[in-house]
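Continuing from yesterday's entry. The apo prediction looked reasonable, so today I'm repeating it with zinc ion included to see how the binding region is handled. Same sequence as before; SMILES copied from the compound registry.
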Amino acid sequence: MKAARLTAWARTMIPGMAKIPAVRLGIDLGGTKIHCLVIDRKGRVLGTSRASTKASRGYAAVVERIAEVAHEAMDDAGIRRRDLKAVGIGAPGMIDPAGGVIQLAPNLGWRSKPLADDLGDELDLPVVLGNDVNFGALGEATYGGSRKAASSFAVFVGTGLGGGLVVGGRVVNGSHGFGGEIGHIPAPFGQARCGCGRCGCLETTASRTGLVRLVRQAAAAGRRCLLPTGEVRSGHLVKAYDAGCPATRAALAEMLAALGWGLATVGNVVDPEVFVIGGGVAEAFGKRLLAPLARAMTADAVLYQRHRPALRLAELGDDAVAIGAAVASGEA
Ligand SMILES: [Zn+2]
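Holo prediction written out below.
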């Protein structure tokens, strides 16, 4: 009864549910590439365009480039600018979504850039700016792994660990744009240095970076290791895991215990209906992750001793951020 009521409430919270624009355009701005797509009401991709960001050319050149990529995606979808009501763009770093400002984006070398206004001038359309991970969570909550859930928390496990909370079809950005930042929870799994400058943040363990560090530690402690030396991709880790590599198996168990602790912590605070697990590590390991994660969450939270955690794999892959940005453009 309670769940049914919550879902009905959530529907009333989805802005313009009855009049979603026929086409929406979303952009994923990354440090190395720009990915843009056009979707219809059902989230089907009608057209796409990609280009390298070339951030070294400076802010103004990148803004122009984003506009070009957007026009190419419109051409690919067979639509015109006047078919769009607005445009959404997800960017990395610290974002002020209300002001449309990128406060700090180390990947792009930007500080205090009013991207929503500048790109809006370039495209002659309103622009909705958001954090890329939060838009990834919104994409998954609308058309991916957590669609139909009244509330969901998505984590993306890659080089780092990002998270996003979506309630009633809306991203919870928080009052400083920091909502969902699970990666920087101070966690009891060692004191490795984090990219944020602090030590022991959850993402220093619950990420591909953390996983590789744990494999190397296990090998140094004498466990047999099948992982090649040098740069490691998620595919290498899965291959070693499936070959029975003792160091990789022990490290993955440790990494998932940390991630499960993080998700149990989120559960204790917001108790979302569904958790979505995405990012490069999740795409590579797939379902292998779900049972150990659920076990860790059950061990760490009384909530999940009473209610089995609902864990789903992300479904939108590399399109999640751009699709979420397109969804957010419907709120402009
Ligand atoms: Zn940190």
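Comparison notes:
- The two ends are 33 Å apart (CA to CA).
- The CA atoms of residues 28 and 181 lie 18 Å apart.
Will overlay with the apo model tomorrow.
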